[in-house]
Design a protein that fits this description.
With 323 residues, the protein is α/β, with parallel strands linked by helices. The protein folds into two domains: 181 residues, Rossmann fold, CATH 3.40.50.720; 108 residues, UDP-galactose 4-epimerase, domain 1. It is built from eleven helices and eleven strands.
Amino acid sequence: MSLNRVLVMGGTEFVGKSLVKGLISKGYIVDFLTRGNKKVNFRGFHKHIICDRKNQNTLKGTLENYIYDYIFDVSAYTREDVHFLLQSINKSKLKRYVFISSAAVYSPSNEYLYENSERGNNPHWGIYGEDKKKAEDYLFEKHQKDELPIVIFRPSYIYGKGNNLYRESYFFHRLMSEQPLPVPNTDQSKVQFIHINDIVDITIQSITNDKTIGEAFNLTHPRQLNWMELGSIIQNIISKGRVMSINREVIDLLNVKDRDFFPFRDVPLLLNTAKLKEDLLLPRIDIEEGLKLSYEWFLKQDLKPRFHEFEQLERVTRYCLER
């Protein structure tokens, strides 16, 4: 194990950082590449490579003398990001290229999404999902033409220790301060989540499993939730605050969008996990356990509320309180 060298693209934020630390804990020799803008506050890695991956000449000059057994690409958002990297590295010993994509590649649907479901334009996710799809298409093409040993993961909503997106921390801040928490209750959305520890465990396991080569996998805990259920779970953990149901009539009356007052889009996102279960393993951390872990981490941080990111939050709250 100690002879296997890994490159993680990313490594100072949430998913990338968690993968670097997870790989280190399993005995891999780990380099990670970032632009160097964030402080590194952990040890055990081999080298932190500082480089802008979007500059192909610089990237090639930086990586041309490195040879890796495995690459985990967390920071690629476009086809060009992937292309530049593959043109810059020596692939002679590469056993697996793990691409962290997104469920945003799928076309809108109220049904379960399978790995072979239609991918394409989705107005809910915009250019982000379109670019991830193009990156996937390029990797599938490289696998078919050049036998590049890829595996692609499409996670649902990721949460857990170190989440830099203002999602579960928003719930914690709002309820701890005992301010009302307005939550969409429109019967439109069933969604799924996956804890960061499960992301790390499953993606690392994939690199030594030949069934994953050339495949894409939905990556989520199979449990479904609506937003009111999520709010209730968090409220039970904190034992404070008030979750306020906001129905479609109120949303339409105030002429607001869900993201104007809430950290998630009020759209369904359900991934079928049969393939994940058959070829790898299902996530083991249920939402209650995972959010308790998140809350324990949150209490140790000095995170400031960012309510200002939601332009209509106070207006929606005030209206509902005055009704």
